[in-house]
Design brief:
mainly alpha
């Protein structure tokens, strides 16, 4: 078997797609190389022109995920499907990035639908301003429950959410 050596353009595009997404097929790399580096960057930064992933194709093969809230802890499969098949890889990579920063999980939240709503928010606002994302996270039931803000009352102060907001998400430890 003879392997064709990659051109410098394809090597550069492969590097970009690994950094701005989750890699790419050879066909996609060739298409993007032909389209050009600057145009590819523009396409990655402005995914609004992309057709979203057809989640119904996923549901056709995995119908048990039709109601994600009924299968606690297993709801991440449609998101992985989206990451693999998205025409907007930077948007999904940022979605994963923000999910790692603003960590929540079904181990405590119990309702995957709330976590999915937060993931959808990261997808919609991830390329925008951090302040907008932070404001949306602050209102998210998943984050409120994850950091115990639902237990924060006048007679029983729980500073977990406030401390995390300041130390981890905005100003840093010691500020």
């Amino acid at each position: 078997m003879v392997l064709k050596k990659a051109s410098p353009d394809i090597d550069l595009m492969a590097h970009l797609m690994r950094r701005a997404g989750f890699g790419a097929t050879r066909d996609e790399l060739e298409r993007r190389s032909n389209q050009g580096y600057e145009e590819t960057i523009e396409e990655l930064l402005n995914p609004g022109t992309q057709t979203p992933v057809d989640i119904y194709e996923f549901l056709r093969y995995y119908p048990m995920w039709w109601k994600p809230g009924t299968m606690g802890g297993l709801g991440q499969a449609p998101w992985v499907w989206t990451m693999i098949n998205t025409p907007a890889p930077l948007q999904e990579k940022l979605c994963l990035f923000y999910h790692n920063i603003f960590a929540t999980g079904v181990a405590k939240v119990d309702h995957y639908d709330e976590i999915q709503d937060m993931i959808d928010m990261f997808r919609n606002k991830g390329l925008g301003h951090y302040k907008e994302i932070l404001m949306e996270v602050a209102k998210s039931p998943a984050m409120i429950y994850w950091l115990d803000n639902n237990e924060n009352h006048a007679d029983s102060v729980n500073e977990n959410w406030g401390r995390e907001l300041l130390e981890l998400f905005t100003m840093g430890v010691g500020n």
